[in-house]
């Protein structure tokens, strides 16, 4: 089993409930620091975050439906980077993916990647773009095509799920397929429904290099150093 400290450094400690308050986010940051995780992921309206120390600050874009105009996603992502986000998790346009228009999916991802890169120039540190493909809503061919579109568009990670889609969250099958598709060129983030150490370890074994968790403490309790 992976060591607890190593798992902690793979975790985006996440709070994306729409009813979350500033106090909830402050508590998330404090817990993240106590747990020793890599990052916190919050809704874009909560930026900028204060007193984050060494934590990576991540946010979402076009969340959770992905049914936003590409220009709107790009503008949202650019603003988030200007407000301190080092990583942006964007949701693809699922309608385009299900229709087989992966050139359209790629073009939209590129809009966001370019917007983040432009904003990053002002901060002096390249912003990371993770592409949420909502894998449970796609078949295998569509998962592969979405991952290829993300890579061609210049994204840094592919990510399984928002955790909000009724089709479900992460699966080891999807993570394996995503890793096989992108190799070691991109990161793979498993997110959605990972609630214990066993599930987290299965995702890591399948090829996940990052985990999106809302219950990080419960997951880490199952690992030892």
From TrEMBL:
Entry annotated with the keyword Lyase: yes
Any Gene Ontology CC annotation: cytoplasm
Domain of life: Bacteria
CDD domains named among the record's database cross-references: DeoC (cd00959)
Active-site residues, as the UniProt record annotates them: 89, 159, 189
Pathway linked to the protein: Carbohydrate degradation; 2-deoxy-D-ribose 1-phosphate degradation; D-glyceraldehyde 3-phosphate and acetaldehyde from 2-deoxy-alpha-D-ribose 1-phosphate: step 2/2
UniProt keyword terms in alphabetical order: Cytoplasm, Lyase, Schiff base
The protein's Enzyme Commission number: 4.1.2.4
InterPro entries for the chain: Aldolase_TIM (IPR013785), DeoC (IPR011343), DeoC/FbaB/LacD_aldolase (IPR002915), DeoC_typeI (IPR028581)
Main location: cytoplasm
Pfam (any one): DeoC
Biological process, per Gene Ontology: 2-deoxyribose 1-phosphate catabolic process; carbohydrate catabolic process; deoxyribonucleotide catabolic process
Signal peptide: none
MF (Gene Ontology): deoxyribose-phosphate aldolase activity
Family: Belongs to the DeoC/FbaB aldolase family. DeoC type 1 subfamily.
NCBIfam families: deoC
Function according to Swiss-Prot or TrEMBL: Catalyzes a reversible aldol reaction between acetaldehyde and D-glyceraldehyde 3-phosphate to generate 2-deoxy-D-ribose 5-phosphate.
Name of protein: Deoxyribose-phosphate aldolase
Species name: Brevibacterium luteolum
Name of the gene encoding the protein in the UniProt record: deoC
